[in-house]
Specification:
The complex is a heterodimer.
Chain A lengths: L9 H36 L1 H4 L31 H37 L1 H15 L3 H12 L3 H28 L2 H8 L4 H37 L11 H10 L5 H29 L1 H4 L2
Helix pairs in contact in A: 1-3, 1-10, 3-4, 3-6, 3-8, 3-10, 4-6, 5-6, 6-8, 7-8, 8-9, 8-10, 9-10
Chain B lengths: L1 H28 L4 H7 L5 H11 L5 H13 L14 H35 L4 H15 L2 H15 L15 H35 L2 H8 L4 H38 L5 H11 L2 H29 L7
Helix pairs in contact in B: 1-12, 5-6, 5-8, 5-10, 6-8, 7-8, 7-10, 8-10, 9-10, 10-11, 10-12, 11-12
Classes of the chains: A mainly alpha, B mainly alpha.
C-alpha cells in the first residue's frame, strides 16, 4: 500500500483532506471488521476451552431455561447450553466457509491467471463458461448440488467452492489482463524470465489486492450459505450446533422463549458483517479508485 | 437498436441451452443412479429398479437421453415428479405467479426505499444522513433473509399481532387478508434489496456529481434540485438498473428462503421438498424455470438500459 502522497502545493493539500477523511472512515470500518472477525475466529478455535458445557449434552431438568449464572444465555428445548452451542456453531461456519472459499480460490485464481496470461481460444471459452456459471442464482445451484449429493457439511463446503470459483476466475482473469501489458512484465520478459516466473513474481503480487477483498466477501457469503441451507434443513443436520439450525430450532419455540432467537441471529449477522466490513474497508484502503467514494 | 436486441436474444438463447445442458450433466454426475438412490432406501428388488430405469429412459445411451431431454424441454414438458408421480408443469403454473407476486412487490419496495436513500446519502456526503444510510445498508446486507424474516415474524406476527404469522389466502378469496399475508415477506426481501440499491445509487450519484457537466450546470446558475434530478440522476440511474439485473439472481434465491420462512406457497416448497426427498425431476424443473426467469430479467434490463442510455453502442 503506497504511503500518503507528497503534496507539494497548498491546493493539493486541500484536495487531499476529504480523501484523508475517507481513508480514516475506511480504516474504522476495517478495524471494526477485524475485531469482529477476531472474536468470531477465536470463539470458533477456542470453543473447547471457552464453552462451559458440552454443546450436545441434553438436560431434561433444565429445558428452555432463561439466562442466569449457570447458563449465561439460557438453554434450548433439549436443555442444551446455548452459549456453548453458539461457540461450537462458529467452528462449523468457520470450517465450512473457510474450506469452501479455499477451494473456490484454489481452483478459480490459477484458472483466471493462466487464462489471462496465455489468452487464446481456450481462455475465451473458459471465461464464457464462468459467465454461464455466474448467470445462475447461487442458492439454486447450492440446492441442486444438495439434491444430487445429499446434505452434509463436506457437501456444503463443496457447494460454496463450486458456486464461488467462477467469481475468482473472472476476477483473476480481468486483473491479469490489466497487469499483463505493464512495463515491468515486459521488462521481466525481456530479461528472459519464464512464463511461470513472471506469473509468480510479477503478476501475482499485483493482483493480490482485489483477490484478498474478494476472499473476505466470499467468506461472508459462505457463512450466509452455510447457515441458510442449514436453516432450510439442507445443510448441517441435527443435533449439530450450526447457527442456521439454531435459528430454525428457536423459531419453533419462539412464542415461549423469544430471546433464544436473538443469540444465533446476532452471531450469524455479526460474522457476515465482519467480513463485509473487512472487504469493503480493504477495498477502499488498498485502492480508493476501485470504489472511489 | 433492433440489431442489438437481436444479438442479446441470441446470447440469451445460448445461455438457456447451456443451462439446460448443465442440468442434464449435473444429473448424470450424481453418485450412483437416480433410481437406485430413490429405491435403495425402500429396499426394491433389481427387477423393479430395471423397470423404473426403463420408464425414465435411463437405460438408453447418453446421446439418446440428451436428445430426449432437449426435445422434452422444447415442448415445455417439465417431466414427472418421482415422489408424487404427477406431472410437474401444472404445479409450477400454480406456484409461479405467487412467487412472482412476491418478487415484484419486494422489488418495488426495494427501489422505492433504496433510490431516494442513495440520493440523500450522496447529496449529503460525509454528513449524518450519509452515515446513517451507509450504516443501515451495511446492516441490511449483513443480516441474512432467513434471520430478518424470522425476527420480523416474531416481532410483528407473534408479539404485536399486526400481521398473520403463517399461511396464505388467495387474492380472489379475500383481497385484504391476502395483502396482509404479503406484507412481512415483502418487507423482508425489500429491505435487503433497498440496502443494495441505496449503496449503488449513492456511489453512482457521487461518480456523476463529480463530472464536468455538473459543474457547468451549476455555473450556468441552475438550481441545486434541478441539477441533481434532471442532470445527475438520469445518468446515475443506469448502473443501478444494471445492478438490479445482476442482483435479481440473489433476489430469486432470497425468495426461496423467505417463502419458506413465511410458508408462502410459491416455488420454494417444491424446490425444498424436492431437494430433501431427492426428487430430481422436481428440483430440475424449478431450477430451469427460475434460471430462465433470471435470464429473461437480465435481457429486460439490457434492453431497458439501451433504451434509457442512447450512448450504449449496439456493437
Amino acid at each position: 500500500m503506497p504511503t500518503s502522497t507528497r503534496a507539494s502545493t497548498t491546493l493539493e493539500i486541500v484536495a487531499a483532506v476529504p480523501r484523508l477523511r475517507r481513508r480514516l472512515l475506511a480504516e474504522r470500518r476495517l478495524s471494526i471488521g477485524l475485531i469482529l472477525m477476531g472474536l468470531f475466529i477465536l470463539g470458533g478455535l477456542l470453543a473447547p476451552i471457552l464453552a462451559p458445557y458440552d454443546p450436545l449434552k441434553q438436560d431434561y431438568r433444565r429445558m428452555l431455561a432463561p439466562p442466569d449464572v449457570v447458563h449465561l444465555l439460557g438453554t434450548d428445548e433439549f436443555g442444551r447450553d446455548i452459549l456453548s452451542r453458539l461457540l461450537y456453531g462458529g467452528r462449523i461456519s468457520l470450517l465450512v466457509a473457510g474450506g469452501g472459499v479455499a477451494m473456490a480460490g484454489g481452483i478459480g485464481v490459477p484458472l483466471g491467471l493462466l487464462a489471462g496470461y496465455y489468452g487464446g481460444l481456450t481462455a475465451a471459452g473458459l471465461m464464457r463458461l464462468t459467465d454461464v456459471a455466474m448467470a445462475f442464482p447461487p442458492i439454486l445451484l447450492a440446492i441442486s448440488v444438495v439434491a444430487l449429493f445429499g446434505p452434509g457439511l463436506t457437501n456444503l463446503a463443496v457447494v460454496i467452492g463450486v458456486t464461488y470459483f467462477p467469481r475468482f476466475a473472472r476476477l483473476a482473469y480481468v486483473a491479469t489482463l490489466s497487469v499483463k501489458t505493464s512495463l515491468f512484465v515486459e521488462a521481466g520478459r525481456a530479461l528472459g524470465a519464464s512464463g511461470g516466473r513472471i506469473l509468480k513474481k510479477h503478476i501475482s503480487p499485483n493482483i493480490a489486492a482485489p483477490i484478498l477483498v474478494e476472499v473476505s466477501l466470499a467468506l461472508g457469503f459462505g457463512i450466509l450459505l452455510e447457515s441458510g441451507l442449514s436453516f432450510l434443513g439442507l445443510g448441517a443436520q441435527p443435533p449439530s450446533p450450526s447457527w442456521g439450525l439454531m435459528v430454525a430450532d428457536a423459531r419453533q419455540v419462539m412464542s415461549q422463549m423469544p430471546f433464544y432467537l436473538l443469540w444465533p441471529s446476532l452471531a450469524v449477522a455479526g460474522a457476515i458483517l465482519a467480513f463485509n466490513l473487512l472487504g469493503d474497508g480493504m477495498r477502499d484502503a488498498l485502492d480508493p479508485r476501485l470504489r472511489g467514494h | 437498436m433492433g440489431q442489438y436486441i437481436a444479438r442479446r436474444l441470441l446470447v440469451t438463447a445460448f445461455l438457456v441451452w447451456a443451462i439446460v445442458s448443465l442440468v442434464f450433466v449435473l444429473l448424470r454426475l450424481a453418485p450412483g443412479d437416480v433410481v437406485q438412490v430413490l429405491l435403495a432406501e425402500g429396499g426394491a428388488s433389481p427387477e423393479v429398479v430395471q423397470a423404473r430405469r426403463r420408464v425414465l429412459g435411463l437405460d438408453q445411451p447418453l446421446g439418446v437421453q440428451y436428445w430426449r431431454w432437449l426435445s422434452q424441454i422444447v415442448r415445455l414438458d417439465l417431466g414427472t415428479s418421482l415422489a408424487t408421480q404427477r406431472p410437474i408443469g401444472p404445479d409450477i403454473a400454480r406456484a409461479l405467479p405467487r412467487s412472482l407476486e412476491l418478487v415484484v412487490a419486494s422489488l418495488s419496495l426495494g427501489l422505492a426505499l433504496g433510490v431516494p436513500a442513495g440520493i440523500l446519502a450522496a447529496s449529503r456526503r460525509g454528513r449524518r444522513e450519509d452515515l446513517a444510510v451507509s450504516f443501515a445498508s451495511m446492516g441490511g446486507l449483513s443480516v441474512p433473509n432467513f434471520v430478518s424474516g424470522t425476527l420480523l415474524l416474531l416481532c410483528f406476527g407473534l408479539l404485536l399481532r399486526w400481521f398473520p404469522t403463517a399461511g396464505y389466502v388467495s387474492f380472489s378469496e379475500s383481497p385484504v387478508t391476502h395483502l396482509r399475508f404479503l406484507v412481512l415477506p415483502t418487507v423482508t426481501l425489500g429491505l435487503t434489496l433497498a440496502a443494495i440499491t441505496a449503496r449503488f445509487t449513492r456511489s453512482s450519484m457521487l461518480e456523476v456529481l463529480g463530472q464536468d457537466y455538473i459543474r457547468t450546470a451549476h455555473a450556468k446558475g441552475l438550481g441545486e434540485r434541478f441539477v441533481r434530478y434532471r442532470h445527475a440522476l438520469k445518468n446515475a440511474i443506469i448502473p443501478v438498473v444494471t445492478i438490479i439485473g445482476v442482483e435479481s439472481g440473489s433476489l430469486l434465491g432470497g425468495t426461496v428462503v423467505v417463502e419458506y420462512v413465511f410458508t408462502w406457497p410459491g416455488m420454494s416448497t417444491m424446490l425444498i421438498q424436492g431437494a430433501s426427498r431427492r426428487d430430481y425431476p422436481m428440483v430440475q424443473a424449478v431450477v430451469l424455470v427460475v434460471a430462465g426467469l433470471f435470464l429473461m430479467l437480465n435481457l429486460l434490463v439490457d434492453v431497458l438500459n439501451a433504451y434509457i442510455d442512447p450512448r450504449i453502442h449496439y456493437a
